Amino acid sequence: MIPSAAELAAYTLERQHPLTRQWVDDETRLELLTEQHAGLDVLLAQDRSIAESRIERLAPGTPVDAMLNHWVLVGNDLHAMLSMRFEGLDVTKPFVDASPLSRPLEPRDLSGLAAAAMEIYRVHRPRYVRLWSSEPIDAFPGTQRDRRFLGAPIADLQPYGVPGGLALTPAATVDHYDEALAAYAAVDRDHPAHSEQASLASLESLQDSADQGLLSSTSP
After folding, report:
1. Distances (CA, A) of 185 to 147, 190, 203
2. For 15-109, where are the alpha helices, taking DSSP H only?
């Protein structure tokens, strides 16, 4: 039986890094996590029409069940929400996301997670299982790092300064969005792998951040 979005949110809250957990009170974070899991996990585990749409776009002819999310027991009393994904919607780069988890991830869980992912999504031939953890990067022998995320309120990062000749100031608008797009495109041309590592948020997303006073910009 699939847990409710609120139950999944409770699991995720307990996996938060101690530092990030201080930034928002638990009640607010639970509300946000519940909303996130409702749309990203529970819905994609139950709505077959979404799965059918994804199949039509990404994997024509494959079974619907092999595109739905699945809440499964993978061993060692660990349950995981498994989800079929494609890097950048590239059909040649299939992988399985394993989150949220019913308890903290341990090295002994890795083989069970991999086996469950392959059993459920074998038709898509996933290349790997993606796991999320706030543990140190060397906590899971045999795994490879995919991404590392640094997050902090701007007020906490400012004391560390910015490169010489630049200043960090609050931004109320996204007037320079086209310039930012051009800058990202220039880096992508010189460093082809960059596009897989970083991308610019949408104009709407950045404007929303600016409206909430959460956006900063650098200037000479």
Report:
1. 21, 9, 16
2. 18-21, 26-37, 43-46, 48-58
Give the pLDDT confidence of 117-173 residue by residue, as tens digits.
999 999 999 999 999 888 887 899 999 887 776 666 666 766 666 677 777 777 888
Cα(178)–Cα(198) distance, integer angstroms: 17
CA-based radius of gyration for the chain? 20
Higher pLDDT, 192 or 123: 123
In whole angstroms, what is the distance from residue 141 CA to residue 15 CA? 19
* DSSP code of residue 173: -
Residue with tokens 């310039």: 179
User: How far apart, in whole angstroms, are the C-alpha atoms of residue 108 and residue 195?
Assistant: 34
Only one residue has tokens 């140190």, namely 136
Q: Are strands 129-131 and 167-170 parallel, antiparallel or unpaired?
A: unpaired
The residue extents of the domains of the chain are: 5-131, 154-219
Tally Cβ neighbours within 10 Å of residue 99. Answer: 20
Whole-structure pTM value: 0.78
Q: Nearest Cα to 168, choosing from 148, 182, 153?
A: 153
88 in the Ramachandran plot: left (φ > 0), alpha (ψ -120 to 50) or beta?
left
Q: Which of 5, 68, 2, 3 is nearest to 35 (CA)?
A: 5
